[in-house]
Design brief:
mainly alpha; single chain; 3 helices
């Protein structure tokens, strides 16, 4: 008598959520590099927003939070650099 193995449904890939989280963490780490942290944070926030619309997970939420923190820090850095450049001539 043959026994059948239970069939398991394949889990949906969390690649987009993980990519958004990696970009968010990278944006926080590299916020001091001019415009790189800002760019990474924006791309991470967009990916996290799209993934949260598909399905709400804690990874997606963490990706969104880290990306927004990276955008804020990167934006402050970019603003500070541009402000310093504009006022250096005067």
């Amino acid at each position: 008598m043959a026994t059948s193995q239970p069939e398991y449904a394949a889990r949906p890939a969390d690649g987009q959520r993980i990519a958004a989280l990696v970009l968010g963490i990278a944006s926080v780490v590299f916020f001091w590099v001019p415009f790189i942290g800002l760019l990474l944070g924006i791309v991470g926030a967009v990916l996290a927003g799209v993934s949260l619309r598909q399905r709400y997970t804690l990874i997606g939420l963490a990706a969104l939070v880290t990306s927004l923190v990276g955008v804020a820090l990167g934006g402050l850095t970019a603003f500070g650099i541009l402000y310093a450049i504009m006022n250096a001539a005067g």
